User: Fold Cytochrome P450 from Salix udensis.
Amino acid sequence: MQMGQRTLVIVTSSELIHEALVQGGPTFASRPADSPIRLIFSVGKSAINSAEYGPLWRSLRKNFVTQFVNPVRIKQCSWVRQYASENHMKRLKRESLENGLR
Assistant:
């Protein structure tokens, strides 16, 4: 499928997904070259969603899995998510009232 200037490959078969992501993981793990603008927003390709597959990406992923999506850490940080959600909703309500939206 063509998405702008990029070609996307959509895989819907579980066997092909396993082949592409498990058996051929390193082959398909890297991302296409970035435009100069995207490089600015990708933190110099040093974030988990922009780093090329390799030692840095594996380190970022390991840190993400052990520190951020670990069930114990999710429970410990629930207050932060609650606080952020409440403030976000307050801001949306305030802005909608200021702009005459209800």
Observations:
- The two ends are 40 Å apart (CA to CA).
